Amino acid sequence: xxxxxxxxxxxxxxxxxxxxxxxxxxxxxxxxxxxxxxxxxxxxxxxxxxxxxxxxxxxxxxxxxxxxxxxxxxxxxxxxxxxxxxxxxxxxxxxxxxxxxxxxxxxxxxxxxxxxxxxxxxxxxxxxxxxxxxxxxxxxxxxxxxxxxxxxxxxxxxxxxxxxxxxxxxxxxxxxxxxxxxxxxxxxxxxxxxxxxxxxxxxxxxxxxxxxxxxxxxxxxxxxxxxxxxxxxxxxxxxxxxxxxxxxxxxxxxxxxxxxxxxx
Length: 264
Hints:
The protein is mainly beta. 9% of the residues lie in helices and 59% in strands. It has a 16-stranded mixed sheet that branches. Strand 1 (29-38) and strand 2 form a beta hairpin. The radius of gyration is 18 Å and the shape is globular.
């Protein structure tokens, strides 16, 4: 009976939507120092934290990832930011739900979406609300797998980089709350990453490009440790107002020992 159920599930969920989670443990907490670029100067901007836990969603046990970015008092005078991203993935890491609440400067927006699967299609119902700007809604089916911004970070942790070559790309359709954009997640090889606590790690680098791979615009770059945890030790964000970087400061409740240290 279990085999029949699994066949039905796989038949309804697109193959590229499915991944095996062998890296992330519920209860994991990662804390980052946040840096903003301003006129060629990198400023201490605040803190970001990423947590993972088990939740009940649609009557099944799922994984919830949550990223919170908060600027400090100095940056708040010029560009206060309070962003919360949430993603929920099913037992096979298939995307089920996302939400982004973004308070950036004087702008505030909420983006939310729900994913479902059936008849060989991925369906998304999503909306975007902007303060004093009304609501944009979208409800559509797609042949390809859909994912969200935080979901792609979790997905990068499930990859086996030993089977990848530099320049290998995986295509995704990303739901943004008001549209679905074509994205390419490109593997860019092994890098050494220095964090702000004088740690150095061997990492695998992945960059998400809008539209046309390396000919497109960078959206996010993630450096994950070359060990079983695949912890993001640095995240580069390419934003409307410039660039931001998050450097790992502390790790709690990681699933495996961290063996990617070059220097501690």
